[in-house]
Amino acid sequence: SAMGAMKALNGQPFDPHEHLQRLSCNIVYRLTYGIRFHRSDIGNKDSDWGALHEVINNILKLGGQNVKANYSPLLKLIEKMSASGRALDRKRHETVARRD
Q1: What spatial distance separates the first Cα and last Cα of the chain, rounded to whole Å?
Q2: Is pLDDT at 91 greater than 70 in this prediction?
Q3: Are 26 and 37 in contact (CB under 8 A)?
Q4: How far is 11 from 28, CA to CA, in rounded Å?
Q5: Is 30 strand, coil or helix?
Q6: What are phi and psi of 42, to 5 degrees?
Q7: 80-89, pLDDT tens digit by residue?
């Protein structure tokens, strides 16, 4: 649990973000897939949790970019034609493919 992880640090600074994200994912994944991510998976990029955590954070980061184009179809068209827009689209497709 997050409380156990905090106690194990003996008063050192603690960022509960990944622990809480893992706990909420455990609820969904145990119900839908019968998969459980363990506390020992936190910080391990090679574990299933590490890969999922990276994909989730990339989706959130990429989803927050290019917001101006949501307000005008013209801005969306201009963004798609730009090099940065194509790079962002490529990153989004790579992240979604990795998620799937």
Answers
A1: 28
A2: yes
A3: yes
A4: 31
A5: helix
A6: -65, 130
A7: 677 777 777 7
Quick check: 16 and 6 in contact, CB under 8 A? Answer: yes
Whether the CB-CB separation of 77 and 58 falls below 8 Å is answered with no
C-alpha distances in Å from residue 1, one per residue of 42, 74, 89: 12, 48, 37
- Long-range CB contacts (< 8 A, 24+ apart) of 75-78? none
Contacts 24+ apart (CB under 8 A), 71-74: none
Cα separation, 72 vs 91, whole angstroms: 22
Give pLDDT tens digits for 15-50.
788 888 888 999 999 999 999 998 888 888 889 899
> How far is residue 98's CA from residue 90's CA, in Å, rounded to a whole number?
12
Cα atoms in the 13 Å half-sphere on the side-chain side of 6: 10
Position 68 confidence tier, pLDDT thresholds 50, 70, 90: low
The pTM of the full predicted model, rounded to 2 decimals, is 0.61
3-state SS assignment for residue 16: coil
